Amino acid sequence: MQRAKFAVTLFATVMAIGLTGCGEEKKPEAPKPEAAASTPPPAATVEIKIGTVGPLTGSIAHLGKDNENGVVLAIEQANAAKITIDGKPAHFTLISEDDQADPKVGTTVAQKLVDDKVAGVVGHLNSGVTIPASAIYHQAGIPMITGSATNPQLTEQGFDNIFRVVGRDDQQGPAIASYLAATEKPKVVAVIDDSTAYGEGLADQVAKTLKSEGVKVLAREKGTDKTTDWKAVLTKIKGEKPNAVFFGGMDATGGPLMKQARELGIKAVFAFGDGACTDKMHELAGEAAEGLLCSQAGIPPQAASKAFLEAYKAKFNTDPILYAPFTYDAANLLIQAMKEANSADPKKYLPFLQKIDYSGATGKIEFDAKGDRKDAEITIFVMKNGKVEPIAVVKSGKTIPFDEFMKSMGGA
Amino acid sequence: MDTFIQQLINGLTLGAVYAIVALGYTMVYGIIQLINFAHGEVVMIGAMVAFTVINALAGSGLPPLAVVLIGTGCAIPVCVLVGYAMERLAYRPLRRAPRLAPLITAIGVSIILQNLAMLVWSRNILAFPQIIDIKLYNIAGATITNVQIVIILTCILIMVALAALVYRTRLGTAMRATAQNPQVAGLMGIDINRVIAATFAIGAGLAAVAGVMVGTYYGIAQYTMGSILGLKAFTAAVLGGIGNVPGAMLGGVVLGIVEALGAGYIGTYTDLCKISGISDWLTQRCANDGHFVLFGSNYQDVFAFAVLIMVLVFRPSGLLGERVGDRA
Fold first, then answer.
1. Contact A235 B127 (CB under 8 A)
2. Complex ipTM, two decimals?
3. Are strands A144-146 and A162-164 parallel, antiparallel or unpaired?
4. Number of Cβ pairs < 8 A linking chain A and chain B
5. What is the pLDDT of residues A112-139, one digit of tens each?
6. pLDDT tens by residue, B32-75
7. Does the domain at residues A170-297+378-411 carry the CATH identifier 3.40.47.10?
């Protein structure tokens, strides 16, 4: 008995030593080869760790990898540029973590990055993961910039070190509404929502913007996020003869809505928010989905600067999928702020990040008091041949046709 | 006026589907006094099987109508099998148990079927391939689609066929005899187990047809679609008088129309701005917005259950009367 116990303890101790041994071995090994390569004169180098987090496994792993690639590219370019901070050559290392798009995992890896003493974080991808994780970075005083989380709540928490380089969901409503008013010139618009916080909020903003532009908005119609039969609502709307219909909700309910509207012979223009701005709308509504308008925060990747697109293609031999230009900019913002502050200490460079004025792959970037990007773009899409295609970009209240916007980015 | 007619058409289509599902509830109840709460899930299984088949055949070049018919043809045997298995495994062993016991197994079967469907067809909303070319027809300012016409006609056909089966065939006579008194029917040489199994199978077959209809009409299917549909069809059966076959048909149609009209008009009649003079606060609010709708069309589902409560309070035996009275 006694011997068995002793054996178990011994075994556990050996295992523990083995494990810690492995852990210690790994850490210095990873940055070593790069460090050796880029800094011939040893000793006086500043090691700066930058963290990036996103779902690298699971159903949206391809988007997580895309986000990571943006950061990898930025760091590689920064190392090649031989930046000096505080008189010493700086070397940036990337610590990449997988949050599995899960809020629980997200907070765990956020803590891990904090323990690793990263100087700044680019991430996360999902709003639902970013919001709980942001509290951990805030406590640790580490600046975090997300390139893809669009939920307004993220920057409404009063955290001075949390930033986003992409537009907010609540900038979408005014954008799609003013686009609708300007291009389709409707006299009467029906607004429908799915009674969720997202759908109702979006519909409220659209109705408000339309009214301020002098468009008549019908009494709000409502369904739920599980409604499949919209015929009663649509029949009522049809009697009022609207020129356009806006729906605040997801594609799962928006698809049937649009299909049934066409079945009732409603010919109005249909507009949606990003929840229904997907190719799935075509699957759900068939030909009826053709011509719908919808909005998404940010700009599509093909509208990013030419220099970025070429560098990305050269490095990864593929095109960016969605948010890579934004994470690329986010990483560059961290580096730029460190350069301006001449320090990689979060406390010292944070004030510079807040006041930054930077021209990146997605255009000019400045932050407002909340940490949101000033004049963030919202892109308007149209359904063409079963695919949503960008048609215009709305920026600080102005609508720019997509071709022109592309040209302006290409020139920058 | 054309809005009203349009709502009637919407309601009639919806009601026709409710009626077919309600028949499944009412036939089973008429014979063994069991409310088969898993019946809605059989509808869902029918829609899912049809989805798989139609999806597989969508690109094959067959005419769309043939594809949908093949889909239905595959859904019916699967649902009949599910209905039969359900009766054999979950209800027959409890035939002599207190009435609450089979009711609880019914709920259990419903949960099992739903989760099985989730495992097989995933949690996602499945989009039915849009193979049918939808044509619109005008009736007095209202529109009706070819799919709606087919749904309504099929339902009428099924109802007539079912009535003929129940009142004109040997199986129908055996079913009615079993409903009146199983013991005596058994003594007269009727194989009660077979009759009950046949009832479940017929109900499940109807559910399969209803599933295909719902799937092609709305264009979507999901593993949860059966529960709310089942509850509404159950309401329709109670409305018409549970256990009463013509009652289920009437109940379904009435319920569909009540729902469509209710959802279509509730917003207009509960708009508080119509009476904005009664309080200063209201006047002010309406000056800003113009509409202050108390109950919107998202209360559509509430109508079915409000009807259920009203029927149970004021006319528990339903519009056409329950058939339980036949039992001595």
1. no
2. 0.86
3. parallel
4. 96
5. 999 999 999 998 998 889 999 999 999 9
6. 889 999 999 999 999 999 999 999 998 888 898 899 999 999 99
7. no
